[in-house]
Known about the structure:
alpha/beta; 343 residues
Amino acid sequence: MKIIDRMKPILVTGGTGYLASWIVKLLLDEGHEVRITVRNLSQKDKYAHLTALAVKSKGILQIYEADLLKNGSFNDAMKGCGLVIHTASPFIISGVKNALKELIEPALEGTRNVLDSVNQTESVERVVLTSSVVAVYGDAVDIAETESGILTELNWNFSSSEEHQPYSYSKTLAEKLAWEMAEKQDRWDLLTINPGFIMGPSLSKRTDSTSIDIMNQLASGKFKPGVPFGKMGVVDVRDTAKAHILAGFNSNASGRHICVSGEKDFLDFANVIRMRYPQYPLPKSYIPKWLFGDIAPMVGFIKKYVKLNVGIDLRFDNSYIRNDLGMEFIPFEKLFPTISNSC
């Protein structure tokens, strides 16, 4: 059992992100002293929503500049902190031109640099790492390799590479490195949150989140003729943020945590968006796999991805996060994705 001192400051790396912003908000609302890192302090517009939230909260917000690829750049922000929540990592699933530079190095070296700072900061007692279910599996077809056709925390992505599913590969490498570094010491402990596809409201006006971008694409009419079939793990952004905080302070918590409220597909997403935005040209049916394979390159998917993922349902066991953290999830029907006014 590890008792985490709630009076110490908490560091959230990449604090302006879609998920991280919610983590920061919940911590501020609880009255914590929260520190965030950003890549450029002069770009105040990117964290203006957080400074506004801090003014209305019981907590204190401090902002530091740090670079994932620069060793030691997290040291100042981390001084005196008891809990580090490391969310900073690129999320790009299409249009990647250089996987090593755009995804793998920032994810892997960023994790190494943050944990190097943790090793140098005596006050840190726990690290919560934002991983992903894509560190649990690579392609949907991989579910056939599980014992019961259900993915659990015991599973690891074995099929991704720099050339195929590089985002998934980057998250897998980063989480494995974190566990390796955690096992080499005994002062701080590590927990990971492995969310599925994150949906829900955004706290900022930015639309460069991949999760928000996919919702915008659905609403734009791009997929009006139909969407591919195949259920994936989904979770509300607010639940994902809550899970990080529960993991941070639950003395008995440990290990990896699949953070998925249920399994849904793109047509399910469209139906939820339609409840709030009936004016948008949303898809109302599925498109055959063979036809989607023909048009896939035009909408950002390669044919290999279609072959190994479309038409295959994923199933996740979320019993561990429910039991270990006491998580209860927002029903899928109550998710309200933020859609850009430009759609």
